[in-house]
Amino acid sequence: MTVLSGKDLPRDGEQLQGPALDARLARTWGDAPGLWGWITTTDHKRIGIRYIVTGMVFLVLAGLSALWMRLQLATPENSMMTPDRYNQLFTMHGTTMMFLFAVPIMEAMAIYLVPLMIGTRNISFPRLNAFSYWMYLAGGVMIWVAFVLNIGPDAGWFSYTPLSGPQFSPGKRVDIWAQMITFTEVAALAVAVELVATILKQRAPGMTLARMPLFVWGALVTAFMVIFSMPSVALASSLLIADRLIGTHFYNAAEHGDPLLWQHLFWFFGHPEVYIIFLPATGFVSHITEAFSRRPVFAYPAMVLSLVTTGLLAFGVWVHHMFATGLPRLGYSFYTAATLAVSIPAAIQIFCWIATMWDGRPRFRVPLLYVVAFIVTFVIGGLSGVMQASVPIDLQVHDTYFVVAHFHYVLVGGAVFPLLGAFTYWFPKFTGRMMDDRLGKIAFWMIFIGFQVAFFPMHFLGLMGMPRRVYTYPTNMGWDELNLLATIGSFVVAAAFLVFIVNAIFSLARGAVAGANPWDAPGLEWATSSPPPQYNFPHIPVVSSRTPLWDNRNHLPVMTGLRVDDRELLLTSVMEAIPDVRDPSAMPSAWPLWAAMATTCLFISSIFTPWAVVIGAFPVAAALIGWFWPKSPPGPEPVIE
Amino acid sequence: MRRRLLLPIPLFVLVSGCAGIQSVSDDAGRESGLIWSLFVLFGIVTAIFYVAVIAFLIAAYWRRGGSNQDGLPDEGGVTRERSLRTAFFLWTGAVIGSLSLLALASYFTDRGLASVNPENKPMVGIDLVANQWWWDVRYHYDDPSQNIRTANEIHLPAGVPAMISLKSNDVIHSFWVPNLAGKQDLIPGRINDIVLMPRRIGHYRAQCAEYCGLQHAHMALDVIVESPADFQRWEAAQRQPAPAPATPLAQAGYAYVTSRECSTCHNIAGTNANGTVAPDLTHVAGRRTIAAGTLPMNRAGLYAWIADPQGAKPGNNMPTVGLNADELHAVAAYLETLK
Amino acid sequence: MSSPCRASLILLAFILLAGCDREKRGMTHEPKPETMAFVPSGDPRASDYENNAFQMSQGQRLFMWMNCVGCHAHGGGGMGPPLMDDKWRYGGRMEDIVYTILNGRPNGMPPFKGRLTEQQAWQLASYVRSLSAQPRQDVLYSRSDEMSITEPATLKERNAIMNEPPAPGHGPGK
After folding, report:
1. DSSP 3-state assignment of B151?
2. ipTM higher than threshold 0.85
3. Contacts of B among chains (3+ CB pairs under 8 A)
4. Neighbours of chain C (3+ CB pairs under 8 A)
5. Separation in Å, CA of A237 to nearest CA in chain C
6. In Å, how far are A177, A237, A600 from A607, measured between CA atoms?
7. Residues near A435 by Cβ (< 8 Å), separated by ≥ 6?
């Protein structure tokens, strides 16, 4: 046994703190310099930022495709583009927004923020985390390359069979779409597993479940929802691929398959999906409201229960996408009731946020403005959702522009506005600099007003009978002016995003330098420097309340004793977060990238031949063997005198 | 923010003013009337809740918004945790109560819709078969010799319920006449049905409401609600075979249509044209539109459509036959006689 | 990155690049103007139609609509010769098949000239060739939405075409 003391002590503690500790930890947790470090990193912050930036790129691409569509729809009987182009565009828009932007970016925020919020050094399974990013990137690049080559999918983001089947979607377009699902599935499931393990086992000592930040609760519920819902769409898309590639008959009505099987499987995933996007956003709203209202969130237990309830009810409402398919009528009533019930937790949350502001002393900085915009917008979407829960009303508005308006109010209002607020709010933590306030306000007002101009008219368009997914419409239906108005609004939104992006880039270079806690916020992520060091915290913080930085100003208690010469995490118990064991965390490695490349080869080649699954399995196996090759046993445990 | 407060009111004014041939609010049937009343009820209740939320938000802003820019969280200001708690329970109760009310209203409306033909009248029976991208319409009667086949247009007698069976030959489509009722999907391998009870005479427009491929945008169906007497006249006319061509030009057109590419796919009763995979043309000139609502049924529409079917409706299954000018004149002239 | 992996990536890049026109939806007179005269051998339209998934699927639709199934079944043959084997009495190239469709053949194959447009004949020929998996692998479809008795074209071995003169006194029509 080696006995060490003084400055060689391999654990943090009274003898090892301050700059000496920082230097030692930086050596242990740092990445290799340059490109190799970039490839091999397992740091949740670097991967999180990578995810966020990629997600934003996909947001821009999907936004541009929306603008292109709005140009086509600006005037009736427009022949600017062929129906084929339009169908590819709306498919790419929906697919990218749902699979490549909304879900990944919410997970990306969680990848970055959760370990900081719960006071740990890294996410669990950090190599899996790196792998998930490469898979996500490969899937997204694949589908957009296909689009550029004019073989973009054109069966809609929902790809209803038999339209998406082998007879009515010739070529490889839908196969590419279905395989993109596989890529994002793998990525999303990997992240979900990491988040569940991180949240349940790596919380700072004292952070009981009842003291967990609301975003972490949102991330936890979301991760479980991903784990339960994604297999459904993975199954659906695998069956579709089998139908299309090797002629199985899962969705062929003539051979006792059923096109409705697709709809059940798809919506069993598809509806929880919107809550997968929405719940993390409620976490953003809670954090921003709390920090800027100078008051802990009102009725924390009600908020947590609302999150959990939403997560459960989300699995009981999928049939409300299928009210027109002729399933037994009385059975529909159950889904009406379940759908109406989902709005109860949402109503409770809305009340609690406004109550927090009402009872606090709100400072209306840019992030809180986005929260206000969220409430004003999301509630409209929620209420039009209540209308559609009713079977008779849904039979009229289903698949019309009323629904388009509804889900843009819910998803843009409910997820994108909070996301932009969160981006502004945590930007100083990500980069060490503040975003410009004036540009931020300009972007905010443009996006808020532009959004209403673009989407509010769509409610009327739907009631006036305009169906969705039409590449053009006849004149003299009374739809012309409202469509033009929507197009104008969409361009205002686009300009606003441009301002927002310019602001982000400008602030990255020259924004005011932010301290560790520029907003005087209460969460643990603000207890470390901005941007945080590779190891997040010099010492693991100890928590005794829900708002630790407000309750322990200047002297946040910490816990010492983790090794500094090896990557080590503190695991705590699931409920009470009592320190349990010290656990090693994976070192940087390039194997996740190699494994992702091998898997990408397998997935993409299997679009063209089923044999790729067999042959492609060998490189994947080789990469996984390399990844999990046993390391030499660690050195003897040092003992502290 | 306050701008939005007043929105629900113009909403109803605007929507109620949106009379149209494809409008949810301009109800002309029993089903759409029931649904629109339910919609108005939902609209009022949800508007009240929206106003409440926004009022609370404004109150939060006015109460202490902007004050004490840098104050610490625990400084100053008595929290009203207790009154908030009461408000919280009141709010939750109100939400649950009104949702239950709406659920009941929805349920009873749905039962109302489901009570097919409550007065037990004899019904018009129609088989509607969707194809990419047109509608095949068959009226069936107890005596099969009386059956009628037409396309892209249905006639309904006012005040008489119509039972429409919905089938699809290829992908999923959706039948939707907003002025008369909600939508119902046409799914391959299944038969759905919908009962319409039109009440007001007029011309309405239905449109496919489920994305069905390239020409989903051009898959409309004219719905003409007329008096029972007019309807019977229409039925009788539809049962007649196509009239014989009178002018030399029409005769030339007849010769072409019945012997060449047209007859491979189209049917014209009483002639050699007996294709089954494209719209029936027996009385095409009596319809309002051609190509499933894409072009008006007049000479210009016919010329445009026959000369270049892929121009107005790119991707549809009618090929470009490549008629020369004489043939085009003749074919259009003949089709115009098919009243 | 392992070398098979790299090789398949390069292969993939080629497939994708080659794929640009493979799925083009022929909306108007594409891919070649239909006013062009039919060339019995080496018609430039042959490969355009054969290697386009959309045209092939239009051919599949026409195969059902024109009741080709009535004689040829789903490629297996019946009253008419099978279309999914390697024996072609009148030639198995695109041009031969188009010629057969338009002008008919003795012993029962009716001429479709004037009944189908030339473009439709090309589409049908493309589909007929797919029954023996002649077109490129990435253009083929697996099945149609119907009762299915045949092997998916995507899994079929490609047969070399053997041009076989019609056997006298044998075959359909007698």
Report:
1. strand
2. yes
3. A, C
4. A, B
5. 16
6. 10, 12, 11
7. A366, A424, A427, A428, A503, A504, A507, A511
pLDDT digits (tens, 9 = 90+) for A146-173: 999 989 999 999 999 999 999 999 999 9
How high is the mean pLDDT of chain A? 93
Q: What is the DSSP letter of B72?
A: -
- Tell me the per-residue pLDDT of B258-311, one tens digit each, with 9 for 90 and over: 999 999 999 999 999 999 999 999 999 999 999 999 999 999 999 999 999 998
CATH 1.10.760.10 fits C29-155, yes or no: yes
- Whole-prediction pTM: 0.93
User: Taking CA B120 as the corner, what is the angle to CA B115 and CA B124, rounded to the nearest 5 degrees?
Assistant: 95
A-chain residues near B84 (CB < 8 A):
298, 355, 358-359
Task: Specify whether the CB–CB gap between C139 and C53 falls below 8 A.
Answer: yes
Is C58 close to B277, i.e. CB distance below 8 A?
no
CB C144 within 8 A of CB A253: no
Summarize pLDDT for A246-293 with one digit per residue, the tens.
999 999 999 999 999 999 999 999 999 999 999 999 999 999 999 999
The runs of H, that is alpha helices, within A202-258 are 214-246
CA torsion A462-A466-A468-A474 (nearest 10°) is -160
**Can you tell me the distance from the alpha carbon of A355 to that of A379, in angstroms, rounded to the nearest whole number?**
16
Q: Which residues of B touch A357 (CB under 8 A)?
A: 57, 60-61, 65
Between CA A191 and CA A203 the distance in angstroms is 17
**Conformational region of residue A199, where left means phi above 0, alpha means psi within -120 to 50, and beta covers everything else:** alpha
- The amino acid at A296: P
Contact A333 B107 (CB under 8 A): yes
Residue B261 has its nearest CB partner, among C29, C65, C116, at C116
**CA A431 to chain centroid:** 20
Computed over every residue of chain B, the mean pLDDT equals 89
Find, among A511, A417, A470, the residue nearest to A102 by Cα.
A417
Cβ–Cβ contact A249 with C under 8 A: yes
Inform me whether the pLDDT recorded for A582 exceeds 50.
yes
A552 or B266: which leads in pLDDT: B266
Q: How far is CA B47 from the centre of its chain?
A: 27
Cβ neighbors of A84 (< 8 A, separation 6 or more) are: A154, B214, B314, B315, C25, C27
Whether chain C has a CB inside 8 Å of the CB on B274: the answer is no
CB A347 within 8 A of CB B91: yes
Q: How many CB atoms lie within 10 A of CB A210?
A: 11
CA B152 to chain centre: 12
CA torsion, points A447, A453, A459, A462, in degrees to nearest 10? Answer: -110
Neighbours of A608 (CB within 10 A): 17
Instruction: Yes or no: say if A589 and A217 are a contact pair by the CB < 8 Å rule.
Output: no
* Residue B98: both structure tokens together: 């009104």
Which residue of A298, A299, A393 is in closest CB contact with B38?
A: A393
Could you tell me where the beta strands, DSSP code E, fall in chain B?
124-131, 134-140, 148-151, 153-157, 162-168, 173-175, 184-186, 192-196, 202-207, 220-226, 289-290, 295-296
Tokens of A463: 């009631």
Contact at 8 Å (CB) between B319 and B266? no
Instruction: Please tell me which of the candidates C35, C117, C145 has its beta carbon nearest to residue B321.
Output: C117
Measure CB to CB from residue C142 to each of A149, A243, A608 and give the nearest one. Answer: A243
| Pairs across A and C, CB distance < 8 A | 104
Cβ–Cβ contacts within 10 Å for residue B288, how many?
A: 14
| Residue A32 in contact with partner chain B when CB distance is under 8 A | no
Q: Which residue of C has its CA nearest to B213?
A: C25
DSSP C116-158: B-HHHHHHHHHHHHHHTT-S-TTT--S--SS---SPPGGGPPP
Question: Where exactly are the structural domains of chain C?
Answer: 29-155
Number of cross-chain residue pairs from B and C with Cβ atoms under 8 Å apart: 40
Q: Which residue has the tokens 């002016």?
A: A481
